[in-house]
Design brief:
Keywords: Lipoprotein, Membrane. The chain has 16 helices and no strands. It is an all-alpha fold. The longest helix is centred in the middle third of the chain and has 40 residues.
């Protein structure tokens, strides 16, 4: 089928989506949220999602600006962090030579000079994870606040949803690089910081662990916010990502070839967060995430581009 034909939407289907969208934009009383999500789920199965998340071009509305600016200041550092991690070579050789030749002051100084910049990098990565944790909390507060349901938040606050996605994309990218380029926190910082850094880098996926803990903490500290508000936000985002990936009509809207991988990383990221927060996890029969469908979408992609994502799900 020609790409142009794939992008055409059946008029009746489009009218149904518009009707559902117009209804979903009205604030929903908390007691009706579960019923609305069931309706949205049925509509999604039959027609696809009623919202397209514009991961490429979404811009903040006036209502989103305050949170968007706060998170944007953190995300501006993300590309630099990944670039530094990619170029991280370690100082194993210099350290071994210094240990083997304890009396050689030149080798001791060489090792010291090699280690110090690396410690500074590792400290920067760790401190960035703390800022990322705070940014995630701000986004969760915005995307789960009453009176709107998860799908309504995604429709109304596309720029914040995009930032949430960018945090997950960075997180999985960082952890994939870390797994292929092991990092070790040297004890050249104060003891308390060294201990926290050591625990951070001891994790196979340290950034994802940070976000998972932050999400769990967000749920436990917000006693007045039902846990379903957070888990439904995550499952809805996973659902929308899956349908966007498996539907040519939505895929053809991507203008950047990297958006497919971006969308897959986001889908896997929200699944993992959901699994950490939900009492029975993402793989249970009662889960609101179609895990078979999500895994099927991943396996349809070239194995070299999704191997890390599938491994991340296996570790859940």
């Amino acid at each position: 089928m020609a790409e142009k034909e794939k992008c055409e939407v059946d008029r009746d289907t489009q009218r149904q989506r518009e009707k559902l969208a117009s209804v979903s934009m009205k604030p929903v009383p908390r007691g009706l949220m579960g019923n609305l999500l069931k309706v949205l789920a049925c509509a999604e199965l039959e027609h696809g999602p009623i919202v397209f998340l514009d991961f490429e071009h979404a811009q903040p509305t006036e209502a989103e600006t305050a949170v968007w600016n706060q998170v944007s200041a953190v995300l501006e550092e993300a590309h630099g962090i990944l670039a530094e991690l990619q170029s991280y070579n370690g100082a194993g050789q210099e350290i071994r030579e210094a240990i083997q030749n304890p009396g050689d002051l030149a080798l001791q100084e060489k090792a010291w000079n090699a280690v110090c910049p690396l410690v500074a990098k590792l400290k920067r990565f760790y401190e960035f994870s703390l800022r990322l944790e705070n940014a995630l909390r701000s986004l969760l507060e915005a995307l789960t606040s009453p009176p709107y349901a998860p799908m309504q938040h995604l429709e109304r606050e596309q720029a914040l949803a995009k930032q949430f996605a960018e945090i997950l994309h960075f997180t999985l990218s960082f952890d994939e690089l870390k797994m292929t380029n092991p990092l070790e926190a040297e004890n050249e910082v104060n003891n308390e910081m060294a201990n926290r850094m050591s625990l951070f880098y001891a994790e196979a996926t340290p950034m994802l662990k940070t976000l998972s803990n932050a999400t769990t903490k967000f749920v436990s500290e917000n006693k007045t916010l039902p846990i379903e508000d957070t888990t439904d936000c995550l499952s809805t985002m996973a659902c929308v990502c899956r349908v966007m990936l498996e539907t040519p009509e939505y895929r053809c809207r991507f203008t950047n070839t990297d958006t497919m991988l971006f969308c897959m990383r986001v889908m896997v990221g929200v699944i993992i967060l959901y699994d950490h927060v939900h009492p029975v996890g993402a793989f249970a029969k009662t889960s609101k995430i179609d895990m078979k469908g999500c895994i099927k979408v991943l396996k349809e992609q070239p194995s070299n581009s999704v191997e890390g994502l599938l491994n991340a799900l296996r570790c859940v």
